[in-house]
């Protein structure tokens, strides 16, 4: 239980290797969804309940659905999975071997020194503070976007509007 | 820092490699781009919770907004390629005509 966060991050890397080894996009989308679920659990373990929910709703529920429909439009008849052919399977296996080697390195030395020193194995215990708290920090911080970040909301909203217009112009063709 | 950060940065690097190396589909590179955005979202969310500073939580939300924009534009380009050629294979693209 001490290493549950490290295990989840290892599973995240394995999911990322799964779609970076480039199978057919529909299977890549599946690996991205699995990675998203694992990433949401990592965020939840650090105490960010609101951001985990945002990830599920908007990222997996919004963007992945759009990617799934687009992949269904531009797919071939026999999509290529991880087990068909040596290229995808070889890339996937190399990625997994690299991650297993890294895990063994970390468990052996308890420390990885690459530019910075990554030590402190084990879980972070989120310090909740004294007394009862009524609001979570992350939802209040994201709500401060509309208070301190008024201009940022205007810029992001205008960007989204222009993005929709660009998409319409691109798909119009000619 | 924990080795969890190392794994998340490694996930970003693996997605970056996957985006830059082409196989047959353009859509697979767009998926790797989404993977990069997801790993950045996770990293900034963890840093916001670690530093106990709520205002940093604005950054993952805004990054999600702009990642959605770029995903939409990338998918629109893919659809226009797919309308011209039927599939989104990379070797259909040439510098003369998209």
From TrEMBL, chain A:
Keywords: Electron transport, Membrane, Mitochondrion, Mitochondrion inner membrane, NAD, Respiratory chain, Signal, Translocase, Transmembrane, Transmembrane helix, Transport, Ubiquinone. Pfam families: Oxidored_q3 (PF00499). Residues 1-15 form the signal peptide. It catalyses: a ubiquinone + NADH + 5 H(+)(in) = a ubiquinol + NAD(+) + 4 H(+)(out). GO terms for molecular function: NADH dehydrogenase (ubiquinone) activity. It is a multi-pass membrane protein. This is NADH-ubiquinone oxidoreductase chain 6.
UniProtKB/TrEMBL annotation, chain B:
Its EC number is 7.1.1.2. Belongs to the complex I subunit 4L family. It comes from Theropithecus gelada (Gelada baboon). This is NADH-ubiquinone oxidoreductase chain 4L. One of its GO terms (molecular function) is NADH dehydrogenase (ubiquinone) activity. Core subunit of the mitochondrial membrane respiratory chain NADH dehydrogenase (Complex I) which catalyzes electron transfer from NADH through the respiratory chain, using ubiquinone as an electron acceptor. Part of the enzyme membrane arm which is embedded in the lipid bilayer and involved in proton translocation. GO terms for cellular component: mitochondrial inner membrane; respiratory chain complex I. InterPro entries: NADH_UbQ_OxRdtase_chain4L/K (IPR001133), NUOK/Mnh_C1-like (IPR039428). It is a multi-pass membrane protein.
């Amino acid at each position: 239980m001490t290493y549950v966060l490290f295990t989840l991050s290892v599973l995240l890397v394995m999911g990322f290797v799964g779609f970076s080894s480039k199978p057919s996009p529909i299977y890549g989308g599946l690996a991205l969804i699995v990675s998203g679920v694992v990433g949401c659990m990592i965020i939840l373990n650090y105490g960010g309940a609101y951001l985990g929910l945002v990830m599920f709703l908007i990222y997996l529920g919004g963007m992945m659905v759009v990617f799934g429909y687009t992949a269904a439009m531009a797919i071939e008849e026999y999509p290529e999975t991880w087990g068909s052919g040596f290229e995808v399977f070889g890339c996937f296996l190399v990625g997994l071997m690299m991650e297993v080697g890294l895990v063994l390195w970390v468990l052996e030395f308890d420390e990885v020194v690459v530019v910075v020193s990554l030590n402190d194995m084990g879980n972070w215990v989120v310090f909740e503070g004294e007394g009862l708290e009524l609001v979570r920090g992350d939802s209040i911080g994201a709500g401060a976007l509309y208070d301190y970040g008024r201009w940022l909301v205007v810029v992001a909203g205008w960007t989204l509007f222009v993005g929709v217009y660009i998409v319409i112009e691109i798909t119009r063709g000619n | 820092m924990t080795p969890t950060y190392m794994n998340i940065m490694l996930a970003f690097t693996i997605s970056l490699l996957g985006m830059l190396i082409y196989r047959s589909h353009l859509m697979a590179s767009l998926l790797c781009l989404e993977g990069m955005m997801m790993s950045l979202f996770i990293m900034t969310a963890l840093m916001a919770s670690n530093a106990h500073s709520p205002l940093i939580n604005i950054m993952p939300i805004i990054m999600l907004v702009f990642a959605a924009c770029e995903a939409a534009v990338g998918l629109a380009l893919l659809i226009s390629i797919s309308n011209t050629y039927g599939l989104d294979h990379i070797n259909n693209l040439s510098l003369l005509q998209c």
